Amino acid sequence: MQTQVQNESIEIAIEMAKLYGMLNYLPDGQLSHAPFSLSPYSISAADLQEMTELTSYFSELMIRISQDWEFLAQYLSPISKTDPFLKMLLDLRGHEVTQSKQLLVQRNDFFLVKDELSNSLQGSSSALRQVELNTVSASFPFLITQLARLHQTLSEQNKLEQIIPNNPLIPVVDAFAKAVQDYGLTDSVMMLVSQPAESNRFDQLGLEQLLWEKYKIQTLRKTLTEIYESGSLREGHLIIAGKKVALTYYRAGYTPDDFRTGEAQKGRQLIEASSTIQVPNLPMQLAGMKKIQQVLTRPEILSTFVTDAISKRFLNTFAAMHALDDIIETPNGELSASEWASRNPEKYVLKPQREGGGNNYFGRDITKKMAEMQPEEKDAYVLMEKIEAETHPAILVVNGYAETLTSVSEIGRYGICFAENGVVESNEDIGYLVRTKAENVNEGGVCAGFACLNSLTKA
Ligand code: ADP
Ligand code: MG
Q: Is residue 366 lining ligand 1, measured as CB closer than 6 Å?
């Protein structure tokens, strides 16, 4: 697509983005179009099919793990000694009222590796490498659906290659409506737990709007502090602003920043003490922790949760991950993973138990961070092999400016799974997210450093 796109087309695309509600707030509060790419990313039919087929198996894995509190506690409790955020989350268990109905809305993120010879853990040369699976706040279902409309229109009008259809918005909204109906009370609402200052507000508003238009279900949007201040329990139900909350959808609560005050923590405790269906519930949120992801790269542990055939397919997509004290085989003999990564920091990413971007360590910062770490802090981090994603040129459009940059694309597959006491009732893949960003974000340029929403075309 890129060669045909001229300045005029960029102007038109920006105006269409605004027309479709692809908006977000800039740090100064100004409203702008969300960053997007004008060059869809092409993917082979085989990689796309494998990624799509794996979604429901990954959802089922998350549901299984969420039912196994002992397993979660075994690996997460040691971290809570040095990580107050994780301790707070684990302590919520004491407030939890069991709600047997589970709804998981997840997004499983991958890169495609450029070197087909770079073997996965299974030793296969699959191009897929999982980055992480998001069990909480899997965002962009609205914005990415709108971008697919935009790309589709441009491709039809300019006779460019077809984009792969994408509409995760409708299934997410349908799932929310079903959960509200399953809760079984007339006139109940969905509560969206929001951060106090949310730049991605329009992505949420698009969901809320469709939930109202299609099902006449109202959404209350509250911060955790507001939930504490205005919420109460009545016969086990969570009551906010006089309404019964059937469904609580977290678009906050995944970072310590959301729990700065005691009131915010009490807000989450109040939710836990009610019978509202939480997307996700506490154990599903914990199942998405990076420590759990690392532990599951061990085939003997993975195989306790899935069949051999599925385990093999998962391992084909896994990059190597280690606890810092793991002893690993290296070209220099057996060494601790932290020792090896300190010597080869460009080959690794160091990750704490955090979500939402900006928390990981790359390159020299890995060596520095590990050198400063107290021994007991090591449990709270995992090392992940750096994925060398395939690069491609892309026209990135950020806040009114367009630039062509050598880029990498991260593809997420959205999955929805309903379960009752851990028994899966329905489970499907519902679409994709692509985020394209400049290969080296340290490069200058207006558009470098921004993840731009994108669509897929068939290679
Ligand atoms: P978060 O929960 O903060 O989103 P991620 O694990 O998704 O954490 O990491 C954030 C970003 O860092 C990813 O979107 C990706 O661009 C980059 N990243 C993470 N892990 C790797 C990896 N193993 N190799 C290369 N890049 C990575
Ligand atoms: Mg991520």
A: no
Question: What is the per-residue pLDDT for 443?
Answer: 47
CA-closest residue to ligand 1 atom 15: 131
Q: To 5 degrees, how large is the angle CA 192–CA 380–CA 104?
A: 30
> With a 6 A CB cut-off, is 295 part of the ligand 1 pocket?
no
Average pLDDT by consecutive 10-residue portion of the chain (459 residues)?
62 97 94 96 96 98 98 98 97 89 98 77 83 97 98 94 97 98 96 95 98 98 98 97 97 95 96 97 98 98 98 97 97 97 97 92 96 96 96 95 95 98 97 94 63 95
pLDDT tens string 290-335: 999 999 999 999 999 999 999 999 999 999 999 999 999 999 999 9
Q: Is the minimum distance from the CB of 289 to ligand 1 under 6 angstroms?
A: no
Q: What is the Å distance from ligand 1's center to 235 Cα? A: 42
| Domain boundaries 168-279, corresponding CATH code | 3.40.50.1760
Does the C-beta of 355 come closer than 6 Å to ligand 1?
yes
Asked if residue 131 has its Cβ within 6 Å of ligand 1, the reply is: yes
In the numeric block, the tokens 């006139």 are attached to 187
What CATH topology corresponds to 320-386?
A: Dna Ligase; domain 1 (3.30.1490)
Structure tokens at 143: 């914005």
The CATH classification number of 1-64+97-163+388-459 equals: 3.30.470.20
Q: Separation of 241 CA from ligand 1 center, angstroms?
A: 38
Q: Which of 110, 112, 131, 381 to mutate to test the pocket of ligand 1 (most atoms within 8 A of CB)?
A: 131
Report DSSP state, residue 375.
Answer: G
- Of ligand 1's atoms, which has the minimum distance to the CA of residue 384? 23
* Residue of 318, 360, 384 to mutate, ligand 1, most atoms within 8 A of C-beta: 360
- Output phi, psi for 325, to 5 deg: -90, 0
Sequence spans of domains, the chain? 1-64+97-163+388-459, 168-279, 320-386
Q: Among residues 413, 431, 21, 35, which one has the least CA distance to residue 206? A: 21
Q: Pocket of ligand 1, candidates 118, 120, 293, 349: which has the most ligand atoms within 8 Å of its Cβ, to mutate?
A: 349
| Cβ contact 264:44 at 8 Å | no
Question: Using an 8 Å Cβ cutoff, are 435 and 132 in contact?
Answer: no
Q: Is 318 in the pocket of ligand 1 (CB under 6 A)?
A: no
**What is 237-298 written as a DSSP string?**
EEEETTEEEEEEEESS-SSGGGG-SHHHHHHHHHHHTS--EEES-HHHHHHTSHHHHHHTTS
